[in-house]
Amino acid sequence: MLTCLPKEIGYLTALRSLNAEFNCLTSIPPEIGNLAQLQMLDLHANALNWLPTELGRLLRLRKLFLGHNQLPSLPVELGQITSLVRLYAFSNRIDSVSAEHLSGLSNLEILSLAENPITALPPFLSCLKSLNALSLGECRLDSFPPEICHLTGLTSLQLESCSITSLPDEISNLVSLASLNLQDCPIVALPMGLTRLSALEKLLLDHQVEETEHIDSTRTLPTSLVAVCCDILVSHRERREVKGEEQEEDNTWQVLPVELRDLLRKGGQRCDGCGRRFFGPPAMEGRKARKLGRTAYKQFFWMKFAACSLACWQDN
Prior knowledge:
The protein has 5 helices and 13 strands. With 316 residues, the chain is α/β, with parallel strands linked by helices.
């Protein structure tokens, strides 16, 4: 794995695409600004805690991937890259975004700032008229940012696992919105304006706290008992599925603890790697990239991924 990029990379003035993801880079040399033809820069999954101001000289850059690093902020010079169409900066340490960061990004279509300790958004966000996808999931937002209601071209809005308790009636301004994700948000009421979103195709409001608490209740039982019972129930249920039999509870299972019988009825949780059911907390959980069919490289979306084992996480 690379720990640094050589400054001589600045000599590659004809370079149009630079992919350095999944390395151990902690910084980028200022000579990166010499790559005047660069259109795609992928620095995803490194250890970056700083970006050079020369990044603002990449005036033809269209896609910038900065996710899964340790950046405390975005460089102000980023606002000079008017050609930028996609900006992925999720899972960093960014706690604020100013107007200077976004002022020149008039062509920005996708902005992902999810999994950052952001508490508020700048009013200037409403000027990003080309924006059609905004991801702020797992940020520290305790209210719905009013600036979002001015993004009339927005088709996808991800706000999962925020502390938002209500939505403004002005959400009806988002006439193009097709997907709204409010999973694990403590929403207590929905506004009438939501009914006027005629383009809305997907609305996610499910909350996982109750199921998690229920699964956690099995931890009061002996570990060996839970493990053996779960193995028996899973194998029995899967055999029935293979044979096409209806899922009806066997009377002999009445001797099992009520928590395990209820888990059987719910079906446990399915591993996103191997597809098998498992009970209890996942061995690994996070976000992983998934390609959109057979489209070109980097045409992907990020989805939540739960794996029953470390092997399932690494193999998928």
